[in-house]
Amino acid sequence: MSAEDVPSPPIDSGVDNIADKLGGLNTGDAIDRPQTDEEYGLAQLTLRAIVTSKEAGVIIGKAGQNVADLRDKTGVRAGVSKVVPGVHDRVLTVTGALNGIAEAYGLVADGLVKGAPQMGMGGVISSPNTHPIRLLISHNQMGTIIGRQGLKIKQIQDASGVRMVAQKEMLPQSTERIVEVQGTPDGVQKAAWEIGKCLIDDQERGYGTVLYSPAVRVQGTPPAAPMNGSTGYAAPRSFNRTGNGNDFTGGYPPRGRNGSQVDAGGPPPVVEEGEEIQTQNISIPADMVGCIIGRGGSKISEIRRSSGARISIAKAPHDESGERMFTITGGQSANEKALYLLYENLEGEKMRRSQIPEAQA
Questions:
Q1: Class of 278-355 per CATH?
Q2: pTM
Q3: What ranges in 171-287 are assigned the alpha helix state H?
Q4: Which residues fall within 8 angstroms of residue 319, CB to CB, at 6 or more apart?
Q5: What fold does the segment set 37-116+129-206 form as a domain?
Q6: What is the pLDDT of residue 40?
Q7: Backbone angles phi and psi of 185, in degrees to 5
Q8: Residues 58, 15: contact at Cβ < 8 Å?
């Protein structure tokens, strides 16, 4: 494996208590979740971050020496995505036990603090010996890290001494958002540990995340949303999904808050030969649900027809965020089409809303 190879290991965990999660119950949590720091430290996960090309050079090192040392010291698998011509962002992927991941991000931060001046990256003048780390977090798991009224993110900052800023928007053609962590290398390590614990506790909602992939994108052009039948789907790239067969949770009837059934999802799902029926749960912001459903359900009906997937919508929010759970059921191909069309509509609506003030001006 070269220094720039990016491992894509499965995220180990079951989905035994997903029904309880969706119903707002906690009966299975104590069994499935680690209870002690030692158990958390041994839990396996993947934590990714966006880095610039210059930062990637520091992380990789000459002939890949730095990233090789990182692997040896922490026991993690780590790599940086390959260069995309015309794109300055790359993705650092770190996989392993939480202990090793937290230590690895501390070492990465230390390397960036020391390497920033000679790489011409500067740094934040008001915060010496710090360098920002931009972690990639699934939109569905962000609520766990922020907490009710921001209490959890404040707790993480207080415990680690870092400053954290969570971006509101998802990255293009993905369901990931950025949490920027600014602090000393020791603080970054502590923050990565706390963030990792949150992700482990809420790992079920991370299934099916569409991973951000650096790519050249046309700026200022709203995403095309051809909704004219089953031939209208044209994904701009292949989907990167977390896990390996665990992207889609399954086997449980979707339920809303307090166990209320979601609405009917349309006709039976389309399943291509050789595929198995899979179910994926994603959260949609409350103020965006209407634009996804459309007048009289026209848009969601068209997405169902175009993708061949069955899509059910919870009648009530599933937590205090007010977000509604959309449950997609079908073969892998149908589910991917449905997921793409849902987020394509979301991005189109965001752009439409952002242009309203300009049009009025």
A1: alpha beta
A2: 0.57
A3: 185-201
A4: 24, 143
A5: TATA-Binding Protein (3.30.310)
A6: 93
A7: -55, -40
A8: no
Instruction: Give which of 108, 109, 100, 94 is closest to 41, Cα–Cα.
Output: 100
**Nearby residues of 229 by Cβ (< 8 Å), 6 or more positions away:** 305, 306
How long a stretch of residues is the chain?
Answer: 361
Contacts (Cβ under 8 Å, ≥6 apart) of 312: 254, 262, 263, 264, 265, 326, 327, 329
Q: How far apart are CA 191 and CA 152, in angstroms?
A: 12
Give how far Cα 299 sits from Cα of 261, 306, 336, Å: 21, 10, 17
Q: Output the pLDDT for position 6.
A: 43
- pLDDT value, residue 359: 44
Residue 198: the pLDDT is 94
- For residue 202, give both structure tokens: 């809420």
In eight-state DSSP terms, residue 49 is E
**pLDDT at residue number 350:** 78
Q: Which amino acid is at 216?
A: V
Measured CA to CA in angstroms, residue 321 lies from 142, 264, 325 at distances of: 10, 23, 11
DSSP, collapsed to helix, strand or coil, labels residue 334 as: helix
Is 181 in contact with 146 (CB distance < 8 Å)? no
- Partner residues linked to 241 by β-bridges: 210
Strand order in the sheet with 324-330: 278-284, 324-330, 310-313
For residue 218, give the DSSP letter: -
CB count within 10 Å of CB 147 equals 15
DSSP 302: H
Query: Would you kindly state where each structural domain of the chain is located, as residue ranges?
Result: 37-116+129-206, 278-355
Rounded Cα distance between 359 and 361, Å, is 5
* d(C-alpha 107, C-alpha 113), whole Å: 10
Residue ranges of the chain with pLDDT lower than 70? 1-32, 116-128, 216-268, 270-274, 319, 321, 356-361
Cβ atoms 341, 307 nearer than 8 A: yes
